[in-house]
């Protein structure tokens, strides 16, 4: 309550100020709301023709303090800082995870996040909706990153650095996972970006077990260092790359309203009566079989019914799909559209508009208050792909920001 009333006193002060100066100016000039921008480079990763690089970078550079994140944009650049086009370096995905680590703890290189020491690391995942340890990131995109808006509108922001649940002797840190595939000289471009196991000559998973029956492609086959089949005799130099990421943020203040992150997965099989850790079963990836109906329409719809215990107002939404994706929609219980997001395919040659690649996703910015999710409302997520040909290891994710207060 104290928090709330202070906020109102402050709001009143801004309104009073607004009588003497135009409101927007008074609002923007106040240093508390000044948006700061930091641009960072990830540690380097080295690529050579055909090679898949899937790196985990721990304790990355990130704005410090109790802040509200306003946007996170990223792209792959080369050693000279030039944007690398997708037809040479395919950006499969990047994700950013938040965690608390014992101050003295040094993360071992190249361990995946859920393999780190459990007594030294506490993952601070988003608000849901997958099982713990799955899709818990704060941000994450793929080839679409250059043309996908990520900003949080208005007075909303993603609150971090608040120290909630931070044990003594621990500090907040961030991890960046970058998965890129160098497709210079490859025999089958689509197959390499879709991580086809035969092209990578992989028949066992990273732990040495045979691949699951029927597994033709996906993350198990384009692990770090795996190499996709090249055209005979192709040779190309090694190249250094970096993920350049731009974070916009504001110092946290009573005037800001927290936005919660939820990520839905079209492969989720939800069991409401199961205990919390087993309620969801997000697979992250799935395959699209080649299939057309009697009238020659070739569409694949993957859908899941999912709910979140505490609803609120949707203030932002975006889907994540791979090549072949035709869009994704999140529906409410009565069939109303909460948000629909479609891929933007490039049609040029330059980085940001590469022909045939998904270079952006459309986003939703509903007027705050206009799109409401009720507590535990059954939602339906539908992810549509073009099934003229088969696709392996595709994704059907949907990221939304929910505000519980207006
Ligand atoms: C990528 O596209 C550019 C522009 O069309 C072209 O010049 C270049 O050779 C292509 N690179 C590869 C590896 O296909
Ligand atoms: C494929 O992997 C097998 C062992 O798993 C190996 O014997 C074979 O040489 C590999 N082929 C190529 C072309 O790398
Ligand atoms: C859902 O979870 C409950 C409790 O764990 C279990 O008894 C039930 O078999 C599960 N239902 C399905 C369809 O998996
Ligand atoms: C094929 O799919 C399209 C699009 O979903 C639909 O309009 C059409 O009725 C379908 N045709 C048949 C024969 O099922
Ligand atoms: C590429 O797409 C844009 C936007 O959809 C369009 O305006 C432009 O004419 C297209 N360019 C080519 C070369 O097709
Ligand atoms: C699906 O893909 C095929 C070939 O890849 C293409 O010809 C067709 O136009 C696509 N359909 C849609 C609806 O995008």
Number of helices: 4
Shape: globular
Number of DSSP-assigned strands: 23
Summing up helix and strand content along with how strands pair, one would put the structural category as: mainly beta
What share of residues are in beta strands? 35-45%
The major sheet is characterized as: 10 strands, mixed
Instruction: Kindly report the average pLDDT value.
Output: 92
Query: What percentage of residues falls in helices of 4 or more residues?
Result: under 10%
Rg, Cα atoms, Å = 22 Å
Outline the low-pLDDT stretches: 1-29
Number of individual domains:
1
Q: Report how far apart the termini are.
A: 16 Å
How would you spell out the order of helices and strands? HHEEEEEEEEEHHEEEEEEEEEEEEEE
Bound heterogens, unique: 2-acetamido-2-deoxy-beta-D-glucopyranose
Q: For this entry, what is the oligomeric state of its chains?
A: single chain
Could you explain how this protein is built, in words?
- With about 400 residues, the protein is mainly beta.
- It has one domain (about 35-405).
- It contains 4 helices and 23 strands.
- It is globular.
- The two termini are about 15 Å apart.
- One 2-acetamido-2-deoxy-beta-D-glucopyranose binds next to loops.
- One 2-acetamido-2-deoxy-beta-D-glucopyranose (NAG) binds next to loops.
- Keywords: Signal.
- InterPro entries: Stress_up-reg_Nod19.
- This is Stress up-regulated Nod 19 protein.
